[in-house]
Amino acid sequence: MSKYVRQSKSLPKHPKLSSSDSPFAPVPAPVKPRERPGWSGPGYTKKGGIHIPRPPPPPKPVVVPPGDEHQALEKADQQLLLDCVRKAFPRCEEVEAFKEVLGRVEEAMGKGEWEVALKETEMREAWVVKWGAERAVWFANLLVKVVETLDDDPLFAILRGKRGNDEEDEDEEEQKAEENDDEDDGEPLKVVSFGGGPAEVLALGGVIRHFRPDAHGKSKAELESSDSSSDDRQIIDLTLTNNINWTREIKTTHAALLSPPTLSKYASASAIANSTPYLAKSALEPELCRFSALEASQEEVAEVVGEEAALITLFYTVADLAASSVAKTVALLLKLTIAAPRGSLVVVFDHAEVEGKKGYPLRYLLDMAFLGKKPSGEDEEEGAKPAWKMLLADEERVVKASEGLRYALELETKKAQVYVFRRL
Questions:
Q1: CA triple 404-148-187, angle to 5 deg
Q2: Helix axis angle, 247-258 relative to 198-211, nearest 10°?
Q3: For residues 160-188, b (16+ Cβ closer than 10 Å) or e, as one string?
Q4: How many CA atoms lie less than 13 Å away from 249 in the CB half-sphere?
Q5: How far apart (Å, rounded) are the C-alpha atoms in residues 139 and 133?
Q6: How does DSSP assign 14-83, residue by residue?
């Protein structure tokens, strides 16, 4: 049996699988990428760590559509303003018939020939229907915002006479009744609009309706059953200056504000008796003063502005005047500075600046005329105080009407420059 004894130096018949020194050792399986030492790829997970999922990204803030933050006038009042335009100029429903006239007006305005563009009655009506209606809404939104921001300004005391949204106790109302009566009996707000027309009449009508519910128009039934004389109270005294003869259109627009809306021929007698105008009869009194702003003398400007503090508007006026003569435009602003009493407000509303446009920017002209800034290269006067204080400067304000308004023509969205100054 000794020949079957295994010797110490003999090799086994089959190599051991666990022996790494054996040439017959199996090839180790490749390590997975995540298990490789030093691996830092996108799929790497630290061993022994707790996997914490990433938190979801925060929700994006709601983007307010441009212009909606400036809708100070209620949508219902904006719609009623557009209805007044349709009542004043029924031809606005005939869109196809207006296209040819609108084309002529737009072509002349593009050349800066305003007298040619608005020389005929149908051309002036076309302008009011197309551009005046939407501008009235823009102006009203701006003016309402200005009055709300400067609520404590004594210039707007007449607009704070009575408000339907004030939630005061009955005792407080009784205590302030006499004060309100004194304010109501005060002088109306003096408004001077250089280059103004029917759009300004509509806009200021919207301002009155927003702040003075007691100045809303009354139906025939209310007038017969009421003895109140509030329908005869004047809120705004409006003076419009323009070299275009807007007399007919201003009267027509003003009459539409003071008369009930047009109803269907099938309307009942009760509906007709209870239909109300946009404004009371004497709430707004417009007057047109025809003269050329660039050729006006200091005496003429002072006569128009008056001796009491006033709200002065320059809506789409300064840039058009500067296109004709920069020197005369600055001279007009300086005359306005001399004539404006202390406490007066100037509101400027004009086209936004266009890149590459030749000429002086509007802000440059206003700074030079109202704030006393010298042109580049000239030294500033020491100790000189500006005559005006800038309250608002917005060089790219998005202006638009509320969404969903009913009108025969499309209401556009534009960018405008807005500036507000107070006379010191």
A1: 115
A2: 20
A3: bbbeeeeeeeeeeeeeeeeeeeeebeeeb
A4: 29
A5: 10
A6: S--TT-SSSTTPPPPPPPPGGGSTT--STT---TTPPP-PPPPPPPPPPPPPTTGGG--S-HHHHHHHHH
Q: Are 321 and 294 in contact (CB under 8 A)?
A: yes
Alpha carbon 308 to its chain centroid, in Å, reads 28
Beta bridge partners of 237: 190, 285
Residue 255 CA to residue 84 CA, distance in Å, equals 9
Q: What is the pLDDT of residues 28-75, one digit of tens each?
A: 666 665 555 555 556 555 555 566 777 777 766 544 444 455 789 999
Question: Which tokens sit at 44?
Answer: 């790497």
User: pLDDT tens-digit profile of 148-170?
Assistant: 988 889 999 999 874 444 444 44
Beta-bridge mates of residue 347: 313, 420
Q: What is the mean pLDDT of residues 394-406?
A: 90
Find out whether 218 and 289 touch, Cβ atoms under 8 Å.
no
Helical axes 75-88 vs 247-258, angle rounded to 10°: 130
Q: Are 217 and 230 in contact (CB under 8 A)?
A: no
Paired residues of 351 in beta bridges = 416
Distances from the Cα of 275 to the Cαs of 41, 91, 171, 305, in angstroms?
Answer: 76, 23, 34, 37
The Cα 358–Cα 195 span in angstroms is 23
Q: Give Cα separations from 350 to 50, 139, 292, 301, 316 (angstroms).
A: 62, 11, 19, 21, 4
Place of tokens 């106790």: 169
Structure tokens at 229: 């004389």
